[in-house]
Structures are given as structure tokens and as C-alpha cells.
């Protein structure tokens, strides 16, 4: 799309009033409302959310200017209709066209992700996480100085950053805006949630209830609470050999960050929510279906010194009927409203 047309469409999409002067507008605070059955999040990032900041982050999330070749946006790999994943085992959508070495993680309920991000916890928070994909040569490959020049050339962005942060376009404020948008992505309206809160449309079948009980018994040591993740790192028996130190140690798990040998093969626990949208599964996307995942836990666990103590080395030995029940329940944590929410989609005139 020619640059002049793109600028005009962005300007039309901006919910911030570019005609207002610095003194005429103040960011409107965003009241974060945690679902009643969720724990309260802890915000300690120095990046208070505002409606202007979220709107700006949403624009940036869908803007291909954030990539070196102006063809890749955050949404290229984080599709809202797939719970912000991409459906690929290992993405080749980055500027280099090379396959990445880890599976694209989902983006939701990140306001509670306070124990590191990425599969190995290599980023402390969303603000620092932004710079990983933004500058990685196989992902967006962007030069931050060039990005500032590109954004400053768009009047709507200049006013948008001023209105959101009372400051200029900067890489720091890009990260803050993107973090605010991502923290606003809450998924908590599945059929299970309605069951949990005794709301209309929340009935579960006998098989789904049995699956819920099995998940509580066998899975919630790691996939804990209503978030269905403990935000921790576990070796779930995918591999037994971690001697391959190529590719910057990406296959070593949490050890790559901590240098603690007890962290070898440990990866961040993903949420069980929205699994119907986020296949394939695991940090490297090795399992195509939920049935494959359960077969691993039942018969495919590989023992090693760091295998999580919650996982039997011999496997969980689930019966065929139990596997069906677990899958049935997991589909009840699918939030159809989340993937259809217009507030998460690309701005209509962008």
C-alpha cells in the first residue's frame, strides 16, 4: 500500500484526537477488571494502563512498519482468531523466511504473567519482551532508529504518543504501548467459566465433568488454578538428552537463562485455555493434536534427572476413555468470545 494512503487510513483509525494540544488532553486511566474467579494481578512495571495507550498499542500491533521489510507485524504470527497464535509448528513468517526454533506462544491473560516471558523466561516483563521479536533477524529484524524515523513521519503516531505518554515517539514508549494492549487481552468467558460461575450456558456433560476431575488430579500441579498455569517452568519429559548447545542454547530450556543444571529441559507452563485454537502444542510445536499430547503423558514420557516430580517416569497411563474425557473438558475452556472480540482485531480503517 502506498505510504500516503496508509498514513491517511491510520489517521482515520486513531481514536485519539490529534487536533488536541498537549494541554487539552489527559490519558484516560484504564480500569483493569479481573474476572471474579481469577486472582488479582500485580502491576509493578511503571507503565499504568490508559485507553490511549491501549489504542496506540493496538495500532502498533498490526502495523508492518515494525518490521525491517514493512511486511511483518506482530499480528502476522499472533492472529487474534487463533487466540493470538499462528497455527504453524515453527513459523517461517519472519523477515528472513527461516523457520524459527520455537513455537509461537498464545497471547492472553498476560497481566498475570509476572514470572518471565518466552518459553524459557528470558524476558522479565512485556515491556522488555517486545524488543526480542522486534529486533531478532529471523522475526521482525527492525532497526530501532529507523523505526523511530518511520513512526515520526506519521502525524497520527506523533499525536498518539503525545496523548498516551505525554512524550515523543520512542522505542521505550513503543514497548509500553504494546505491553498495555497485550495486558488488556483477557480470556475468561468459556463454557467452563460459565459453569464455574453458575451462569447461563455453563452446563457440562458427564464426560466433561469427568475430564475436569482428571485434569484436577493429574494436571493442575502445573496447570494450576483458573488461569490453568502456575507461570512456572517444568521438564515434562519431552526429551532426555540436553547436550545440544547449538542455536544459542534454545533447546536447553530455563537453563539457558538461569545456568542452573536443575533447570535443564524446563519450559514455561502454557495455559490450558483456548487449546482448540492454539495447535500444534509444546515449545517446539511437536504435537499436532491434543490426542498426541495425552499419548505423550500416558506412554511417551522420557526420564531424566530434571523430570518434574509430578510426572511419573512411566507415564500417567491414561485409559482411552480417560483421554477422551480430558479432551472433552479441555474444549470447554475454549473462549469463542475472546477470538471474536472486535476490540482485539485490526482497527477497521487501518
Automatic annotation (TrEMBL):
Heme c 1 binds at residues 74, 77-78. Binds 2 heme groups. It holds the Pfam family CCP_MauG. It comes from the Bacteria. Its EC number is 1.11.1.5. GO terms for cellular component: periplasmic space. Binds 2 heme groups per subunit. It is found in: Periplasm. GO terms for molecular function: cytochrome-c peroxidase activity; electron transfer activity; heme binding; metal ion binding. SUPFAM superfamilies: Cytochrome c (SSF46626). Keywords: Heme, Iron, Metal-binding, Oxidoreductase, Periplasm, Peroxidase, Signal. The keyword Nucleotide-binding does not apply. The keyword Disulfide bond does not apply. Heme c 2 binds at residues 219, 222-223. InterPro entries: Cyt_c-like_dom (IPR009056), Cyt_c-like_dom_sf (IPR036909), Cytochrome_c_Peroxidase/MauG (IPR051395), Di-haem_cyt_c_peroxidsae (IPR004852), MauG/Cytc_peroxidase (IPR026259). Residues 52-162, 206-334 form the Cytochrome c domain. Its cofactor is heme. This is Cytochrome c551 peroxidase.
Amino acid at each position: 500500500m502506498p505510504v500516503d494512503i496508509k498514513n491517511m487510513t491510520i489517521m482515520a483509525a486513531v481514536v485519539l484526537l490529534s487536533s488536541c494540544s498537549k494541554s487539552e488532553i489527559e490519558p484516560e486511566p484504564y480500569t483493569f477488571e479481573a474476572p471474579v474467579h481469577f486472582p488479582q494481578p500485580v502491576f509493578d512495571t511503571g507503565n499504568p494502563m490508559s485507553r490511549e495507550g491501549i489504542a496506540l498499542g493496538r495500532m502498533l500491533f498490526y502495523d508492518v512498519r515494525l518490521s525491517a521489510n514493512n511486511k511483518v507485524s506482530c499480528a502476522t504470527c499472533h492472529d487474534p482468531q487463533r487466540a493470538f497464535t499462528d497455527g504453524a509448528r515453527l513459523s517461517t513468517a519472519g523477515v528472513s523466511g527461516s523457520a524459527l526454533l520455537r513455537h509461537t506462544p498464545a497471547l492472553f491473560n498476560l497481566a498475570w504473567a509476572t514470572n518471565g516471558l518466552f518459553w524459557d523466561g528470558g524476558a522479565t516483563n512485556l515491556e522488555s519482551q517486545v524488543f526480542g521479536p522486534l529486533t531478532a533477524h529471523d522475526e521482525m529484524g527492525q532497526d530501532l532508529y529507523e523505526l523511530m524515523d518511520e513512526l515520526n513521519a506519521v502525524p497520527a503516531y506523533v499525536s498518539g504518543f503525545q496523548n498516551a505518554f505525554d512524550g515523543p515517539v520512542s522505542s521505550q514508549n513503543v514497548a509500553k504501548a504494546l505491553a498495555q494492549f497485550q495486558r488488556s487481552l483477557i480470556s475468561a468467558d468459556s463454557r467452563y467459566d460459565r459453569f464455574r460461575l453458575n451462569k447461563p450456558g455453563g452446563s457440562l456433560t458427564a464426560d466433561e465433568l469427568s475430564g475436569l476431575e482428571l485434569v484436577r488430579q493429574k494436571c493442575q500441579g502445573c496447570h494450576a488454578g483458573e488461569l490453568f498455569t502456575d507461570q512456572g517452568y517444568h521438564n515434562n519429559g519431552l526429551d532426555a538428552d540436553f547436550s545440544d548447545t547449538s542455536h544459542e542454547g534454545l533447546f536447553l530450556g530455563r537453563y539457558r537463562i538461569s545456568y542452573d543444571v536443575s533447570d535443564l529441559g524446563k519450559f514455561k507452563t502454557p495455559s490450558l485455555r483456548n487449546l482448540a485454537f492454539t495447535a500444534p502444542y509444546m515449545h517446539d510445536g511437536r504435537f499436532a493434536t491434543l490426542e498426541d499430547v495425552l499419548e505423550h503423558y500416558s506412554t511417551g514420557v522420557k526420564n531424566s534427572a530434571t523430570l518434574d516430580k509430578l510426572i511419573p517416569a512411566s507415564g500417567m497411563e491414561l485409559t482411552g476413555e480417560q483421554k477422551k474425557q480430558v479432551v472433552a473438558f479441555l474444549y470447554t475452556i475454549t473462549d469463542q468470545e475472546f477470538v471474536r472480540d472486535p476490540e482485539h482485531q485490526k482497527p477497521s480503517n487501518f
